Amino acid sequence: MEHSVEAPGDRQAPATPIRVLLVDDHPIFRAGLRALLESQPDVRVIGEAGNGAEAIARANELRPDIILLDISMPDVDGLEALRRMQADHVPGRVLVLTMHAENEYLFQVLESGGYGYVLKQGVDTDLFTAIRTVAAGDIFLYPTATALLLSRYREQKRALDETADGSQPDGLSDREREVLSLTAQGYSSQEIGDQLALSAKTVETYRTRVMRKLNLRHRSDLVRYALRVGLLQPEES
Questions:
Q1: Tell me: the pLDDT tens digits for 4-55?
Q2: CATH assignment at residue 97
Q3: Residue 234 lies in a domain
Q4: Are 82 and 113 in contact (CB under 8 A)?
Q5: Domain boundary among 100, 121, 141
Q6: How many domains does one find in the chain?
Q7: pLDDT tens across 185-220, in order?
Q8: How far is CA 71 from CA 37, 80, 186, 226, in A?
Q9: Domain that holds residue 77
Q10: Calpha distance 225→115 (Å, rounded)
């Protein structure tokens, strides 16, 4: 499921707009994208870059909220730039923009520290939602990507290694792991409660325990943790 936000027409311009750095090697595409973004009162384009190396330098200089990063670029491509940004703690949350098949780069983007991605052919319908979702600290996932994560989680859940006494290696109970997985996939407390026959308040209690046990702070941390320990992995081709 995609994270829900207000429609563009429902929002008033905030005191502090979302500051975006555009990174794409095609100047004409960047110009069109800038015009599209600047039609929104809560989004401000503060700079542009034409390749990954330039993107890193501009991000350090401008300190954007969001780095809208193309994957296919000469010299330093988007994925390599993303990895370098994470290693060097470059300011800004990265939202990848790509022409490639929807789930082709999903796991690489998330594992490299990105907050999701938008297909170029879906810019007019998905981009504003994605930017506002990432600006709020959440990961943007398409419905099919969420379904992929959930399907893989269910398949691998039984195959997780257990310690000799039957407890999970990370100290989480089965219920806590269920809440972890569903939270990482973007479900709200009420939606998780509906699936697990729990109240929303109980779900929030489980989530708090999970975050404390794993020393995590944000939903994006939960997604990356799930990927790192093998809860959510791409299907083998």
A1: 433 333 444 456 899 999 999 999 989 999 999 999 999 999 999 999 999 9
A2: 3.40.50.2300
A3: no
A4: yes
A5: 141
A6: 2
A7: 777 888 888 988 888 888 888 888 888 888 877 777
A8: 19, 9, 24, 24
A9: 8-141
A10: 14
